């Protein structure tokens, strides 16, 4: 898998005895402007999230609390990332299948997306995804 399809990015950490702070600024820490932010939480044990790819949307995924794994699949090989630091996120480029699983109790997954929600941007069937890759 090409490293440019998914890579970990460390964000600035401002240490303070009252509590730490991390910031993510569009076009500075993130390589895109943020059009949408959403978070996933209260994931039951054993459940999987994701299971799709995007044609146009890029995403930056952060475990703001707890931990989970993200598996990226480019149709040739898979790479798995453990997200468990609120100051680190995973950049996921377009055309990459992703699944999120192994959520710890209390985990919160924050996603910053480059595009607003558009159902047409999603590829939700893995067979359709492989066909999409052949047509690129």
UniProtKB/TrEMBL annotation:
Signal peptide (residue range): none
SUPFAM superfamilies associated with the record: RmlC-like cupins (SSF51182)
Ranges that cross the membrane: none
Pfam families: FdtA
Superkingdom, natural source: Bacteria
Protein name per UniProt: WxcM-like domain-containing protein
Sugar 3,4-ketoisomerase QdtA cupin domain sequence ranges: 7-133
Lineage: Bacteria, Pseudomonadati, Bacteroidota, Bacteroidia, Bacteroidales
């Amino acid at each position: 898998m090409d490293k440019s399809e998914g890579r970990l990015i460390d964000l600035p950490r401002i240490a303070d005895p009252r509590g730490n702070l991390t910031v993510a600024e569009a076009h500075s820490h993130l390589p895109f402007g943020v059009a949408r932010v959403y978070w996933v939480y209260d994931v039951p044990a054993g459940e999987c999230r994701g299971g799709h790819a995007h044609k146009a949307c890029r995403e930056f995924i952060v475990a703001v609390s707890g931990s989970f794994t993200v598996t990226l699949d480019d149709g040739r090989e898979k790479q798995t990332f453990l997200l468990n630091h609120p100051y680190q996120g995973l950049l996921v480029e377009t055309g990459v299948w992703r699944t999120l699983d192994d959520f710890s109790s209390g985990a919160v997954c924050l996603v910053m997306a480059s595009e607003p929600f558009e159902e047409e941007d999603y590829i939700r069937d893995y067979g359709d995804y492989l066909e999409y890759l052949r047509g690129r």
